[in-house]
């Protein structure tokens, strides 16, 4: 799948909007940007928010955010984002993006990767 400049901008916006929603503890606002599969998995915005708070503190409250070049990992359009966790540890978040039938991009998963690993 070819990623256009417009796609890149839209993908970045989706992630930025979700990060902004986490910052305001806006569970509904953050949940909107999750793919249908993620929404089905967590069922409610509150469940989703609780999971992010517990398992992804770097995504929930990053000290800094830096977008890298979009790539494809195992066939998934992936937006790597460098995050500085609340404890000051740098991480790379790999956002798996999914284009919906209405051409809106949604987040279909996020994996945190340590930058200190070899």
* Run of helices and strands: HHHHHEEEEE
Secondary-structure-based class equals: alpha+beta
CATH fold label? Nuclear Transport Factor 2, Chain: A
Number of domains: 1
The outline comes out as: globular
Mean pLDDT: 96
In the CATH classification, which architecture applies? Answer: Roll
Number of strands: 5
Strand content is 25-35%
Termini separation comes to: 30 Å
Question: Main β-sheet: number of strands, strand sense, barrel status?
Answer: 5 strands, antiparallel
Percentage of residues assigned to helices: 25-40%
* CATH class call: Alpha Beta
Total helical segments: 5
Q: Radius of gyration, Cα only, in angstroms?
A: 14 Å
How would you describe the oligomerization state of the chains in this entry? single chain
Structure characteristics:
118 residues; alpha+beta; Nuclear Transport Factor 2, Chain: A; five-stranded antiparallel beta sheet; 5 strands; DUF4864 domain-containing protein
């Amino acid at each position: 799948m070819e990623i256009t400049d417009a796609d890149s901008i839209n993908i970045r916006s989706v992630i930025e909007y979700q990060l902004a929603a986490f910052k305001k503890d806006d569970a509904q606002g953050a949940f909107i940007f999750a793919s249908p599969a993620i929404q089905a998995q967590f069922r409610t915005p509150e469940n989703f928010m609780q999971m992010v708070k517990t398992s992804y503190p770097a995504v929930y409250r990053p000290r800094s955010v830096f977008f890298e070049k979009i790539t494809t990992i195992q066939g998934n359009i992936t937006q790597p984002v460098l995050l500085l966790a609340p404890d000051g540890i740098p991480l790379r978040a790999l956002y798996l993006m999914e284009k919906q039938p209405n051409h809106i991009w949604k987040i279909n998963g996020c994996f945190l990767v340590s930058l200190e690993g070899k």
